[in-house]
Amino acid sequence: ISTALNLAERGYNVHVLEANKVGWGASGRNGGQIIGGISGEDKIARQMGAGDESLLWEMRWAGHDIIRERVRSYDISCDLKWGYLDVAIKPRHLRDQQAEFEALQKHSFPHENKLLSRQETRDLIRTDAYIGALLNMGNGHLHPLNLCLGEARAAISRGATIYEQSPVLRIDHGDKPRVITAHGSVTADMVVLAGNAYHFVERKLRGSMFPVNSFIIATQALSDAQVNAINPRDLAVCDPNFVLEYFRLSADKRLLFGG
C-alpha cells in the first residue's frame, strides 16, 4: 500500500491486487513500533565508501519522515506517538546502546535521546527487569492497521485502484507482464511483488523469504492507576534479544505485549 501511494503521488496508473483485505497480514497486525534501523547496517557501512556514511544514516530514518508527513498530509488517525526505550538486559546491551548514543550525537540527531541508568529506566517503566536503557524520542509507536487503511484511502484519492479478495494466480512475463487472478487480469508496464512472506507466485523467489511466527496479546483496558504503575510516559519498549519481547500501550490503554 505504501508503494501504491508513492507511485500514485507520482502520477502512475496504479492497481493493487490484494489477496485478502488491506492490512490483513503483518502490515495491519504488527506491534506498531517505529524503530529506526537497517538490517546488517554495520556490514553495509563497511562496503560503502566513507562519503556514503551520511546517506546510510539518512536512509535509516527516512521511514519516520514518510510516516510523519503522510499522517499530517492525509490526516490519518493512527494514534501516532513519539518515544521509545531500547532496554538492556545484559552488560553487552549497554555497550551497544553506548555506541548507538554516540552515533546519534555524531550525526546531530534532532530528537531527544539519553542513556538511562537502571533507576532512571525503572522510573519510566516501573520494573527491575532491565539494567539500563536508551531513550529515543525520535522513535515511537502507532496503530498499524489504521495507518495502512489511511494510506490506502490516500492512494485511492490519488487515483489508485485497490482490488481486495483478488489473489494472484500467476504472472505471464513479457514486455507487458500480465497478472492473472481468478476473476480477471491486469496488463502492466511494471509489476511490484509486495506479498512479503505470503508471496507464492514466483517460484524462483520462494526460497528467499519465509514466514516467522510471532505472538502478541492485548489486555483489557487498564485504569489510570495501572497505566501509571506500568508505563506512565506511554513509551514503546523493546529489548535487543534475538527472540525479543516488546510492549506498548494502545490508545484505549490496553497493554500490547509481543515477541
UniProtKB/TrEMBL annotation:
Q: Report the leader peptide range.
A: none
What's one Pfam family the UniProt record gives for this protein?
Answer: DAO
Sequence intervals crossing the membrane? none
Of the GO CC terms on this record, one is: cytoplasm
Domain FAD dependent oxidoreductase per the UniProt entry, residue ranges = 2-259
The molecule here is called FAD dependent oxidoreductase domain-containing protein
| The organism of origin for this protein | marine sediment metagenome
